[in-house]
């Protein structure tokens, strides 16, 4: 097991390992980690190593990885969400050559879990499916994202900035807090959607005389195959999917890198918004100690925070947060959130067995 | 005919006038004015006074007024838009005890008419319905709104701020320009929707620690019957109709009047946005002469610009515009836009017959 796995990729080595050993496994020796999002749901199956001997390996011995559609009950309803979760778990076990009896613990980290009632509802769906010794944990999807950076420790802060944006923090003593994540109408201006919507607005303002000229006009009209700014209105309202609009972020970054001041200001505003959502969470939870100088991990997740070369949004966010909280330790996860969920289950189980 | 009519109301006097004289009218002696919006369509029928003897009367001799649904072809499609327009014209004539042969001119001032092709399409719908001597005029709905304040003169600027916002300007020599009016995704922050969305955002920011506390929280949660700011997210996305969100403007104004700084800042920003949309149009069209000091009418239309007592958004907008353009002459229309459309037809006809 010396090969490294990035983002849950399954190596040939592991396939062989899985095929060769699964038949002989004892009951109660795997863990399922589920990252349930609004776009897709991923389930991974990992062998359970005894908690006392647990040293997180460089290489995770992934037995199976399965993907399916949305499992956010707010988006698709309870029945569809439940069926999707059942399906990915069954497939992950089947691919591993196992059945339900092999499961030791499951962490379901699901988008749309915001209240204890959401948590309880999902627990109720699955409690009877598994023997009572199987541990079930239900968390928000932010928990898996954080754990993917902290290798299973539910402590610190995670900033997710893709189509939407949210900051989520957890303390060692079980408190949690979130900021932003309320969608575009409620002002998630740091998100990919927010950046792109402001770029489109800047084009309209340049066109009608309310704002300065900008390279965004040519760049985005060309990207969209439109011939004038007037046509942008029809394009925008023809399909208001947030992801479609958020997909324009690379064009905004390219214009900022080419020295366009309007694009640069939009990215600067986005940086301030993202940093503010993190500092609000850090402040409320006291994540950096009473003197504000304690260190805390900040896991960075999502397309907006991934490697831009010239204009590094993620690095600017870190610089901005550092001014208030010099102890911030940024982490770019090396594994995907579903692995984070499995590692959470692993750690919960360890804590549970140590008590 | 001494009674005054406000906003197109029909007095008993006029009903009698209509009933007593319509049967005896000569062919070619009425004008139809149509204000076609996204929410509703209004058609008024007025008697035609000979252009050379035209002095706009204090009292408009309204023969009929008819209302129907949407006639914006972008919203309901061409067939439905056309049928609605045919229906209101037929009903207005029928109520006046007349038929198509009585029509001298029609002005259709329709939302969604943005290009010469839109204009031509609507002309084509109706050209064959009427004898060739009947004059047909098609304009954007902003033209009727302007004319409702200038009593039929298509010259100056109109600012419309209701659910959405737009500034539209027309010059004596036939040029026109618009600013804003691109909807919420494209940043109409001065509109009723814009004001309310920013108020909702401010509540979320106060709740998650990103912004200062504000009276908006209690005021708006109470208005909506919600018990916590968390519930606002569900409320907002359950029904994203722009008008439903814009309906919160009175609560924002009340908080600003009660001294809330957050609400006050939102209204100040709205004022700047609305003023900027007007000054952009004035600048582009040169509406105030080469020295910037010439006078021009600014017709103020829509719920956001109607009488607030303590916090007068409309007056603040005028003050803001006056700094750049001291010649601005604000007008609050005394008649509705459909009457404005009829007056436009009247004036077009006068110009046409004088040539």
From TrEMBL, chains A, B:
<protein>
    <recommendedName>
        <fullName>N-acetyl-D-glucosamine kinase</fullName>
        <ecNumber>2.7.1.59</ecNumber>
    </recommendedName>
</protein>
<feature type="domain" description="ATPase BadF/BadG/BcrA/BcrD type">
    <location>
        <begin position="32"/>
        <end position="345"/>
    </location>
</feature>
<dbReference type="GO" id="GO:0047931">
    <property type="term" value="F:glucosamine kinase activity"/>
</dbReference>
<dbReference type="InterPro" id="IPR002731">
    <property type="entry name" value="ATPase_BadF"/>
</dbReference>
<comment type="similarity">
    <text>Belongs to the eukaryotic-type N-acetylglucosamine kinase family.</text>
</comment>
<dbReference type="GO" id="GO:0045127">
    <property type="term" value="F:N-acetylglucosamine kinase activity"/>
</dbReference>
<dbReference type="InterPro" id="IPR052519">
    <property type="entry name" value="Euk-type_GlcNAc_Kinase"/>
</dbReference>
<dbReference type="InterPro" id="IPR043129">
    <property type="entry name" value="ATPase_NBD"/>
</dbReference>
<dbReference type="Pfam" id="PF01869">
    <property type="entry name" value="BcrAD_BadFG"/>
</dbReference>
């Amino acid at each position: 097991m010396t090969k490294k796995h990035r983002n849950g990729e399954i190596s040939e080595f592991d396939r062989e390992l899985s095929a060769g050993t699964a038949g002989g496994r004892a009951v109660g020796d795997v863990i399922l980690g589920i990252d349930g999002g609004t776009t897709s749901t991923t389930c991974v199956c990992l062998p359970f190593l005894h908690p006392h001997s647990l040293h997180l390996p460089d290489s995770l011995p992934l037995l199976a990885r399965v993907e399916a559609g949305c499992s956010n009950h707010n988006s698709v309803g309870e029945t569809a969400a439940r069926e999707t979760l059942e399906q990915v778990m069954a497939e992950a076990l089947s691919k591993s050559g196992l059945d339900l009896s092999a499961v030791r613990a499951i962490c379901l980290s699901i988008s749309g879990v915001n209240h204890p009632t959401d948590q309880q509802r999902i627990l109720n769906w699955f409690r009877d499916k598994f023997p009572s010794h199987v541990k079930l944990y239900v968390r928000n999807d932010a928990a898996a994202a954080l754990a993917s950076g902290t290798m299973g420790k539910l402590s610190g802060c995670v900033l997710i900035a893709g189509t939407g944006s949210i900051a989520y923090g957890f303390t060692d003593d079980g408190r949690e807090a979130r900021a932003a994540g309320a969608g575009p109408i409620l002002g998630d201006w740091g998100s990919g959607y927010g950046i792109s919507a402001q770029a489109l607005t800047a084009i309209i303002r340049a066109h009608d005389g309310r704002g300065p000229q900008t390279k965004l006009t040519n760049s985005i009209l060309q990207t969209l195959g439109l011939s004038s700014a007037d046509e942008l209105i029809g394009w925008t309202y023809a399909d208001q999917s947030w992801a479609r609009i958020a997909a324009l972020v690379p064009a905004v970054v390219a214009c900022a890198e080419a020295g366009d001041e309007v694009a640069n200001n939009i990215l600067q505003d986005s940086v301030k918004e993202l940093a503010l959502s993190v500092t609000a969470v850090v402040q409320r939870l006291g994540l950096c100690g009473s003197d504000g100088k304690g260190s805390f991990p900040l896991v960075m997740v999502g397309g907006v925070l991934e490697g831009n070369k010239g204009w590094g949004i993620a690095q600017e966010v870190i610089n901005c947060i550092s001014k208030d909280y010099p102890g911030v330790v940024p982490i770019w996860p090396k594994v995907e959130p579903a692995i984070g969920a499995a590692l959470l289950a692993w750690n919960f189980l360890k804590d549970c067995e140590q008590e």
